[in-house]
């Protein structure tokens, strides 16, 4: 059974709602509340400002002096001073021609009805008390902030559920509030590991350091989640159960998130434990990376399991776990998705929505998404600097400049450098070595043969094709030999960018017959944007010259994005027939696809 990412995230939310339910409100000091959400409406207790005050440094004057003139300067009224302490009998009691030196934020004396900024006075400065100053005419109320002009008492400042930010903290502080009632966050424990994990910081042969726990902790910090415990386990299911029991006993988490141990391997301890629970599901969802997923209820504690490759963990958290937590508890930050223009061509894989790491930024006022790194779920370093995941629907052909959905991380910044459209291509994975000669054109050969992949016999067709492509000056790595049933996954990885940018030419060998295991034509046919049946007709006619068995081939040819694809038979004779035809056509086809002029 498979599910879409959206349905699975909703399923997780329902699980969390059924097992955890409504979380209680908690009280936090204002200094710790930023990033949390209000558990109740925030209502003003006092008007703001709570008294009439000066908006400027200047001279305050009464009704009798609005027409301007020469005035005698009275005592200063600094901010924080009660005016009656300075002017015991009011300003008019000091003299009807008085100008009051008053500072920004100071309470307005009773007799003052307007403020003249000091820079408009003559001289344009504060003079000594008893000296005279010339002031221009002014209207009533100028530069006086009236009581309650920002907020009146008893009005709503922010409703329940509002995220607390610096402005809200400051507003509450202006009301004398030092605490907030906030929505509690679910208490989450994280368990990762397996026998391959080494503790400490010293490398050990055949083991790796735990990157997933720091990854989830980092996402928790930036997305407003509360992690109360972490743990590691071995590949023994009893050890895993003991770790779970201890964390529940010591920390009482609302939710446990596990990373790894959920795939189809022999030592998948999370899968083994979940499959023993009464309420559980383990399977695959229609996304890449992060296909294997699972959940269950251990006692009364829900467990959500994500796969262990680091990028799979990251994608699963962003596309599944974070949306589920938001949907259930409004916990942390609401996941945000936007539309951006992609600056390079991308092709979707069959049957799955693919999520690629990307940098989203502005270029000349346009919001651009730029694929970062190859698609491999183990290529963690290529995620550094990515601020979003772009969503590529199954078998989509998205061209430069077209809109694409980008799922932002909560700490996304907008100062990332991106290339304009069109331009920008996924960088090539260093985990796949390719031979780059001086040629500007590239090619790839895939041999679909279950027996050759198993080592039953040595493949000769692939090397023959590679040698021919080299002679045509196409940079071509050694042929990739895969079992027939692995061709579909290989094509998914190819179009996902795991082998680098798509080549100009892709030649397959094998799997074009009528055997039950032959599926090359079906797999490749899903990816072709344009069919070129006459190419394969020419190969057929060439082959019939040598053997009538050539008529049994179901080979196809066509264009996949900007790549010419041809599926040749698996025999060396069938490959030779294909080469004989393609030798005269291949350069011409590639030039046409590239939009170049051609000689014939």
TrEMBL record:
- Tell me where the signal peptide lies: none
Q: Does the keyword Transmembrane helix apply?
A: no
E.C. number:
2.10.1.1
Q: Which residues form the MoaB/Mog domain?
A: 189-327, 444-589
Q: Which reaction does it catalyse?
A: adenylyl-molybdopterin + molybdate = Mo-molybdopterin + AMP + H(+)
* Annotated keywords: Magnesium, Metal-binding, Molybdenum, Molybdenum cofactor biosynthesis, Transferase
Q: Which cofactor does it need?
A: Mg(2+)
- Matching InterPro entries: MoaB/Mog-like_dom_sf, MoaB/Mog_dom, MoeA-like, MoeA_C_domain_IV, MoeA_C_domain_IV_sf, MoeA_linker/N, MoeA_linker/N_sf
CDD domains cross-referenced by the UniProt entry: MoeA, MogA_MoaB
Q: In which pathway does it act?
A: Cofactor biosynthesis; molybdopterin biosynthesis
Q: Which residues form a coiled coil?
A: none
Q: What does this protein do?
A: Catalyzes the insertion of molybdate into adenylated molybdopterin with the concomitant release of AMP.
Would you identify the family this protein belongs to, as annotated?
A: Belongs to the MoeA family.
Q: What is this protein called?
A: Molybdopterin molybdenumtransferase
Lineage of the source organism? Bacteria, Bacillati, Actinomycetota, Actinomycetes, Micrococcales
């Amino acid at each position: 059974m498979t599910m879409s990412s959206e349905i699975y995230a909703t399923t997780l939310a329902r699980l969390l709602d059924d097992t955890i339910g409504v979380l209680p409100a908690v009280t936090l000091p204002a200094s710790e509340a930023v990033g949390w959400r209000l558990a109740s409406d925030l209502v003003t207790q006092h008007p703001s400002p709570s008294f009439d005050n000066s908006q400027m440094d200047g001279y305050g004057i009464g009704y009798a002096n609005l027409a301007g003139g020469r005035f005698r300067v009275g005592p200063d009224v600094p901010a924080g001073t009660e005016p009656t302490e300075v002017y015991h009998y009011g300003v008019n009691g000091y003299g009807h021609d008085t100008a009051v030196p008053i500072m920004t934020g100071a309470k307005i004396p009773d007799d003052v009805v307007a403020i003249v900024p000091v820079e408009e006075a003559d001289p344009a400065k504060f003079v000594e008390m008893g000296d005279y100053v010339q002031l221009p005419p002014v209207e009533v109320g100028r530069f006086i902030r009236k009581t309650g002009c920002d907020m009146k008492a008893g009005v709503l400042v922010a409703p329940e559920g509002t995220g607390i930010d610096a402005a809200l903290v400051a507003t509450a502080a202006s009301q004398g509030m030092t605490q907030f009632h906030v929505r509690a966050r679910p208490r989450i424990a994280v368990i990762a590991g397996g026998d391959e994990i080494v503790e400490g910081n010293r490398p050990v042969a055949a083991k790796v350091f735990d990157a997933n726990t720091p990854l989830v902790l980092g996402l928790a910090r930036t997305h407003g989640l509360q992690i109360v415990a972490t743990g590691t386990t071995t590949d023994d299911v009893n050890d895993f159960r003991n770790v779970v029991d201890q964390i529940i006993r010591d920390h009482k988490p609302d939710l446990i998130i596990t990373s790894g141990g959920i795939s189809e391997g022999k030592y998948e301890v999370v899968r083994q434990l979940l499959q023993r629970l009464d309420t559980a599901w383990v399977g695959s969802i229609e996304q890449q990376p992060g296909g294997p997923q699972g959940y269950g209820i251990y006692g009364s504690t829900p467990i959500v399991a994500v796969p262990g490759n680091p990028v799979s963990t990251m994608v699963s958290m962003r596309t599944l776990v974070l949306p589920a937590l938001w949907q259930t508890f409004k916990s942390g930050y609401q996941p945000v998705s936007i539309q951006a223009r992609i600056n390079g061509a991308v092709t979707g894989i069959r049957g799955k929505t693919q999520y690629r790491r990307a940098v989203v930024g502005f270029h000349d006022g346009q919001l651009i998404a730029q694929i970062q790194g190859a698609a491999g779920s183990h290529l963690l370093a290529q995620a550094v600097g990515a601020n979003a995941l772009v969503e590529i629907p199954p078998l989509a052909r998205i061209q430069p400049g077209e809109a694409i959905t980008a799922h932002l991380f909560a700490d996304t910044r907008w100062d990332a450098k991106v290339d304009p459209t069109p331009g920008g291509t996924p960088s090539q994975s260093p985990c796949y070595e390719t031979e780059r000669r001086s040629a500007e054109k590239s090619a790839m050969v895939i041999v679909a043969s279950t027996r050759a992949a198993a080592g039953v016999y040595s493949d000769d067709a692939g090397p023959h094709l590679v040698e021919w492509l080299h002679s045509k000056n196409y940079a071509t790595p050694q042929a990739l030999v895969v079992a027939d049933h692995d061709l579909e996954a290989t094509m998914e990885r190819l179009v996902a960018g795991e082998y680098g940018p798509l080549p100009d030419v892709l030649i397959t060998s094998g799997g074009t017959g009528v055997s039950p295991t032959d599926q090359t034509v079906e797999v490749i046919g899903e990816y072709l944007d344009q069919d070129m049946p006459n190419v394969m007709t020419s190969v057929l006619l060439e082959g019939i010259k040598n053997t009538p068995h050539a008529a049994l081939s179901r080979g196809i040819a066509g264009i996949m994005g900007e790549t010419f694809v041809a599926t040749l038979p698996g025999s060396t004779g069938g490959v030779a027939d294909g080469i004989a035809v393609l030798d005269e056509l291949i350069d011409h086809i590639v030039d046409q696809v590239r939009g170049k002029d051609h000689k014939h």
